[in-house]
Amino acid sequence: MPALEALIERKLQQLSVPLAVRLPSGRQLGPPDARVTIAFKDMGALAPLASARLGRLGDEIVRGRARIEGSMRDLMRIVAALVPGGGQPIQPKPWQRLLYHVNSLLRHSRDRDARQIRAHYDVSDEFYALWLDPRRVYSCAYFAEPQMTLAQAQEAKLDLICRKLDLRPGERFVDIGAGWGGLLLHAARHYGVDATGITLSQNQFDHVSRIIAEEGLGERVRIRLCDYRDLVPDRPFDKLASVGMFEHVGRARMGTYCDTLRRLLRPGGLALNHGIAASGLDDAMVGGGLGDFIEKYIFPGGELIHVSQAIRSLSQAGLEMVDTENLRPHYARTLWAWSDALEAQLPEAERVLARSMPPERAAEVLQAYRLYLAGCALAFEQGWVALYQILLIHPDPALATPDLPGAQSTYPFRRDHIYR
What we know:
Blueprint: H1 2-14, E1 20-22, E2 28-29, E3 37-40, H2 47-50, H3 54-62, E4 66-69, H4 72-82, H5 94-107, H6 110-121, H7 125-131, H8 150-164, E5 172-176, H9 182-191, E6 194-199, H10 202-214, E7 221-225, E8 237-243, H11 254-264, E9 265-278, H12 290-297, H13 307-316, E10 320-326, H14 328-343, H15 346-354, H16 359-382, E11 385-393, H17 416-419
Parallel strand pairs: 1-3, 5-6, 5-8, 6-7, 8-9
Antiparallel strand pairs: 1-2, 3-4, 9-11, 10-11
Helix pairs in contact: 3-12, 3-16, 4-16, 8-9, 11-13, 12-16, 14-16, 15-16
């Protein structure tokens, strides 16, 4: 395919970051001193590189038709140079937005949500333990001090959430999408709350249940295997957190999600929604098919909306936003920490995955996660996506702080309790 080879050579010459390509014949294109080489086993796999369809190029790497030689950090510098339009969000056409809405409705039934969550979180607990911190906190850390380790930053994040919610001993606290129990257990151990967590992942449910039993916390900590829509407590909770759950809800179900948060929270109570948001308005997304790759291999059913749309939906449900914080660069650093940890033990990671799936599938999953972690780190660095903590109240006109009659909640409308 001489024409394709010539096109690839021109593409490589235009890149600001050196990249080499090795053809199936063994011939190498691009600079000889490039820090990254993509070795192709099949000429057909070259087409996505030529057309900057980066999601499709990821497909070829996952399927083993192309191989990365070099570090993921160097590869992501090249990806940044290849992304169409410099990563500016592309506005969908009206018919595309309608299609997104229909697909969102279809993809987020209770059964499909459960399958989609388990497809990601039940891959292998051992695998996640290789590159997450010891608590297995699988969300953006908070590097309150520059020198913090990942484990320290995750503890700082858990504590930041508890302080924002102003948790008090004896309060009834619920964690929507509790993961491996990091926040649920931290709130119970250090703030004395009566804590309930829910998850759709069997692996996570089993892990948290085991810790609760081992530590004798059963009287005031519990984990339930259920959909957020099906949680019906005997009375509303005082405080609520939803961390990393928002992204799985779906655009078409956002109203139901926000209504559920309000239903679960007593009047005057506080809720914190911690979630990833798109940088583009009106469903605009970064080009190159990066989002399609993440949905196909990592987060089936995952959908992002802009923070303004999130606040609008929460407001329509009757919740008032009292504080919003963007932790975007903290998530970039978190993801790089996860990526570096995985890259440092690739052979062990593949062995761990092969214990729960066929070897060929294990190799594909590992390549997908390598691209996902490093690619998401790049996306947060570049501002293609962001991470927001939105603090909300369920207004109660009868409540007031000592000097602010209109508070309508226990929130003091000052930040000193958060950052003291």
